[in-house]
Design brief:
Length: 145
């Protein structure tokens, strides 16, 4: 749209009344709005770029053995820990009902996150009994009284 067309378009819009009172012009059509109308697909034809479909987490979801082995090889995560994460993962995603493409990968990332979180907590809180924690006076070592 050249400058004269642009001015004519705005003159037509400003010819009378408020913008929301104007009927949609038949001519000239603003190029941005024309492209936007053509770019919006029908809901029936909406697909993802790779052809993979998004779907909610299946009720019978189980991680594939390949992912469990991969987690053990690359992160040292024991298979028992991986399977312990399944109930929480399923409860959350079944409740939200959110649709995703790659549930196996989503579960893998969840397990990695939980594993790192557990390792971090272990480093911050070394194994001590409750009695040791309650009688700990190491905080007073730096005080000069």
């Amino acid at each position: 749209m050249n400058n004269d067309d642009h001015k004519a378009y705005h003159r037509m819009l400003n010819a009378g009344g408020s913008m929301w009172e104007l009927d949609a012009p038949s001519e000239p059509v603003h190029p941005v709005f024309a492209r936007a109308a053509q770019a919006v697909p029908n809901a029936e034809t909406l697909t993802t770029g790779s052809g993979a479909r998004t779907e909610p987490l299946p009720q019978d979801f189980l991680p594939e053995g390949v992912y469990i082995e991969w987690l053990q090889q690359h992160y040292g995560i024991p298979p028992a820990f991986t399977l312990e994460q399944l109930p929480d993962f399923k409860l959350y995603w079944l409740e939200t009902g959110e649709a995703r493409k790659a549930w196996q990968n989503k579960f893998k990332n969840h397990v990695i996150y939980q594993w790192k979180r557990k390792q971090s907590e272990r480093e911050q809180n070394p194994h001590r009994t409750t009695a040791e924690k309650l009688t700990d006076t190491s905080w007073s070592d730096s005080l000069d009284i």
